[in-house]
Amino acid sequence: MTTHAVADLIRDIRITLDENSVQNEYLAVADDNMELDDIIRSKLSDAVRSVEEAAPLWMLEGKPHVPSVVNTNSDGSGDVSLPADFLRLVSFLLDDWSVEVNFMVEYGSDEAMKQKNKYIRGNPKRPICVSSFDATGARVLEFYSTTKANAAISKFLYVPIPVIDGDSISFSTILYKSVVNMCAGLTEIARGNQAAADVLFKIAESYYRANE
Predict the structure, then answer these.
(1) Do 126 and 191 sit in the same domain of this protein?
(2) CB within 10 Å: which end of the chain, N or C, has fewer?
(3) Strand (E) positions, 114-210?
(4) Do 46 and 131 sit in the same domain of this protein?
């Protein structure tokens, strides 16, 4: 995943706030400049997360995950653990599957319940993944299904929950303008400017909706 400097993001977010502001000049030297930087920094992870949850799959960058154990049941179903920072699935592929899976069916949904029926559940030509939990309550990815007793993972990529690591944060470069406008919008909400925030949210969305 691509690493972006927080200082650069704060600069570009301040520019965006200034360009979209009628009453406030955010780039001007003011007593609350440091306060504004703190607000932007506090909203940055949430902004990245919001954009990554909504953006189309092809605009994301995946982080590899290698589970220590692949649990396979006698009926061909199975599960693997999800990393603690898991946010969104990018790609999951077992070595006997014809195609990869790019999303997980929601736990408890009708489609998830269908996977309990061996006659209509997913198979190597039309595999299904389900977001679920193991006996301890930990999150797992259930897969349906495999023909192998010891299934192996060919590919497992996911989007991690975004966090600021020191002075940087990682996300796909193609989403940069969306993140900048989303964070600017969240900053405006924190400063009580809902109308300005709504405009910035629409701009943020337009950058990835236009590429769907």
Answers:
(1) no
(2) C
(3) 128-133, 139-144, 153-160, 168-170
(4) no
